[in-house]
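Review form for a predicted model. The reviewer records the input and the model, then writes brief findings.
Reviewer: anonymous (R2)
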Amino acid sequence: MTTVQEALEVIKKSGKTVEELLNMDSQQSECITYSSGTKQWYRNSELHREDGPAVECSSGTKYWFRNGKRHREDGPAIEYSDGTKYWCLNGKYIFTVYSDGSFSSPE
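Model under review:
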């Protein structure tokens, strides 16, 4: 979890105002790196990245987002550091494969 102090430091280091960070309107994602080592990519104020996970946690967990929704077409949209993987498309949960190999899907 990121603290308010860490968030303020990220804003300060970026050289941008809060409004600029929240209203980024470019075709390229902007990366914010927290002191914990966690990285988050945003485009148009939403988690978004075309060429990799939009969130890379210092724990090793990775989250893929496109336009603010969990989404990945070529693999799981969430990969936890323990090996558990969740598949999602356009924000909709599809199924899970747990680290022990068991499987679940919505009913």
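Findings: Residues 72 and 89 are 6 Å apart (CA to CA).
Further findings: The chain has one domain: 4-104.
Recommendation: see findings above.
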